[in-house]
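note to self — DONT lose this again. spent like an hour looking for the file last time. sequence + predicted structure for the chain T wanted, 247 res
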Amino acid sequence: MAGVLSFLLVDLSALIAALPLPEGTPPPELPPPALLKLVAIIQPTVLTSLAVVIGIWLAPKVGLHAPAAEAFAEGKPIFPGLKPQIVPGVVAGLLSGVAIVGVWVIAKPFMAEEFVTRAQEFNKFIPHAVRIFYGGFTEEILLRWGLMTFLVWLLWRVIQRDGGEPKGIFVIAAILISAVVFGIGHLPIASALAGGLTMPIVLYVVTANSLFGVVAGFLYWRRGLEAAMLAHMFAHVVLIAAIYLAV
């Protein structure tokens, strides 16, 4: 919920006002800022709560874990469960951040200059806390703990049916599907910034975010949910540095 509540730090009125409108379209009438922020956190609150329940219910059935959280819930020391996840999570996050920036640099010449400028300005609207907490905690709970776990369980129950551990191919399929969903989930804001989607924009947004989704999914599978969270946080550390360096 720290990630969801971090949305309260965003100046939504200014953010909406910065989005392009079709020519001749008057600016929309917005509700009071307090009401706008309340509405903005309702949906992620509901979805995050649902993802938490799904993960708690299904993750143990398919061999997926959040070792540090599980230790906390059982009243055990947290660090032994967290320690093996720290280095893989941090390193994977830093490398993923560099890769995302690299994809951006390669893709920029193929995208409209107006979109590039708006995207760079939009990035400055997002507080660091939102990137770190919403990306690191909330998105990983939604996409990995909730969606990926559910997909592994669904494939295991529908296709395997032998009661054994889920086959690796099912986990890989769930990683790929949840990664692509993560990428597609970034298209609406890209469309708003561009005033519509073009093939270069779609390819960049889906590719860059899906690549990280695959990394986070494998970390969740092999190390634990906290490793994916750390990777997401440190990927955003790299992106924040790139924004200030105007890469």
